[in-house]
């Protein structure tokens, strides 16, 4: 198929483009950077040097690509998660406005399917693991609520559109090469410096997915039934379990423990929500529908 990938030089974009090309698809990768363009060309993709915020340029790229499927992996995330508050407004603008340009152009150009990056870790609170019927935690702490509203708006746009098939890939937290959660990633550096504590009892449950497994699942999404899917591994785990294991994996000291009150005073409501209130996601639908087979988390395999 002719596939256009927006955000093609990002953490998931590069392994996704490589997987699509390996399967024989003709891929156009959208990127704004020189380094991204070189990397995509080296993978064998056609490169479109385009900002998603430039609607006219997006239209030209879409027509040239003759895209049957459009994959929206647009993000503007910082290299270090500690700078997320500074990047949040730009990230939201790119996803909503840039993604809006991309989606409208896909409709106008007759693409048959639109695949959207979505979230499998900002689920509405509730018991156990959430399935795809769960909405986003739009009433959470301030910044998390903003993220949740963004993802809810993206899903509504893509899954509610007429004339084009919509797929929402609700990814877990990415780990592996090129992500924050890797031996060379920014979160590993935080852990090694003792800057990533367990808050309270550490009961917040995080859902994860290896970046390469996410790429394979997204390539599969070219042909699966439309709808939302949790693209998470089999190991949703509370912070009290995964964080000490991750610290050992990256060669860091045991993470410190702080009380909820201490965390509220030093890091704020959002840090407490991440540490104590996140809800894990079930991957049963993806497994049953298209045989999603994620690997076990690397650090949970480390004794």
TrEMBL record:
Name any one GO molecular function.
Answer: aldehyde dehydrogenase (NAD+) activity
The record's Gene Ontology cellular component field reads: cytoplasm
Q: Which InterPro entries does this chain map to?
A: Epimerase_deHydtase, NAD(P)-bd_dom_sf, NAD(P)-dependent_oxidoreduct
Q: Which domain of life is it from?
A: Bacteria
Q: Please list the coiled coil stretches.
A: none
**Residue span, NAD-dependent epimerase/dehydratase domain:** 3-223
Q: What is this protein called?
A: NAD-dependent epimerase/dehydratase domain-containing protein
Q: What organism, scientifically named, is this protein from?
A: Tautonia plasticadhaerens
